[in-house]
Amino acid sequence: SNRTFTMIKPDATRKGDTGAILNHIVKAGFTVKAMKWTKLTAEQAGLFYEIHKERPFYGELVEFMSSGPIVAAILEKENAVADFRKLIGATNPAQAEEGTIRKLYAASVGENAVHGSDSDENAAIEGDFFFSKLERF
Ligand code: GTP
Ligand code: MG
């Protein structure tokens, strides 16, 4: 597929890095097909990250992801899922390559500035979690 889903996470919106991160994304060739600025409840964050519910950091992750505003978006580009994960870099910013979004804007493995879907299937599920048919094209 040529689509992925992203969120700019609460650490980044809090620091005022939203615009800079969106610039990176657009300059890298991604087209925004849907976008919203919103805030998740703990219950909504828990549902979104349900796949991680057995991991030791789940509680911390849910608390963090509901701690402030996020920007959710559906992005289009050839090879979107893999190219976007390359653009954002490793989960832990200490291990992320120079020039990646997490290297530039993330502080820790927990508070790592952006989300990127890990498969075409999850990109579709995650896009549907946030956007109705009227809100996307
Ligand atoms: P996402 O794009 O957000 O899904 O990140 P990822 O695919 O690079 O990592 P993964 O799906 O394995 O983990 C999901 C999210 O859980 C990460 O982005 C982090 O925010 C958080 N996370 C992962 N590992 C840790 C950890 O060891 N401690 C904490 N506090 N959070 C973690
Ligand atoms: Mg993931």
TrEMBL record:
Pfam families noted in UniProt: NDK
Name used for this protein in its record: Nucleoside diphosphate kinase
UniProt-listed CDD domains: NDPk_I
Cofactor(s) the record lists: Mg(2+)
Compartments, as annotated in UniProt: Cytoplasm
Chief site of localization: cytoplasm
Similarity field: Belongs to the NDK family.
Reactions the enzyme catalyzes: a 2'-deoxyribonucleoside 5'-diphosphate + ATP = a 2'-deoxyribonucleoside 5'-triphosphate + ADP; a ribonucleoside 5'-diphosphate + ATP = a ribonucleoside 5'-triphosphate + ADP
Phylogenetic placement of the source organism: Bacteria, Pseudomonadati, Bacteroidota, Chitinophagia, Chitinophagales
EC annotation from Swiss-Prot or TrEMBL: 2.7.4.6
Domain named Nucleoside diphosphate kinase-like: residues: 1-135
Organism: Sediminibacterium roseum
GO MF annotation, one: nucleoside diphosphate kinase activity
Residues holding ATP: 9, 57, 85, 91, 102, 112
Keyword Cytoplasm: yes
Primary role: Major role in the synthesis of nucleoside triphosphates other than ATP. The ATP gamma phosphate is transferred to the NDP beta phosphate via a ping-pong mechanism, using a phosphorylated active-site intermediate.
Keyword terms, alphabetized: ATP-binding, Cytoplasm, Kinase, Magnesium, Metal-binding, Nucleotide metabolism, Nucleotide-binding, Phosphoprotein, Transferase
InterPro entries named in the record: NDK-like_dom (IPR034907), NDK-like_dom_sf (IPR036850), Nucleoside_diP_kinase (IPR001564)
Self-association state and partner proteins as the record states: Homotetramer.
Residues annotated as transmembrane: none
UniProt-listed SMART domains: NDK
Active site: 115 (pros-phosphohistidine intermediate)
